[in-house]
Amino acid sequence: xxxxxxxxxxxxxxxxxxxxxxxxxxxxxxxxxxxxxxxxxxxxxxxxxxxxxxxxxxxxxxxxxxxxxxxxxxxxxxxxxxxxxxxxxxxxxxx
Length: 95
Description:
Elements: H1 5-18, H2 21-33, E1 36-37, H3 48-63, E2 67-69, E3 74-77, H4 80-93
Helix pairs in contact: 1-4, 2-4
């Protein structure tokens, strides 16, 4: 699927056009670095407003089943194809 430019475009459209910048950042971290405890996604120097935005982004992605949250608070991608599309894009763009 990832070799098919049309299928890849659909996955990237979800990532680039349907997700806001906070959601993209979280999805990218989890795709490139693997599953993480939720608390690690909140930068220590983030303002209260930034923390609220991150909280809301995480909640939205869990609600829409993009991410899955384990009982211990660890978050990861539910869909391997989306994770792989993000990884492939990062490789192509040198991110």
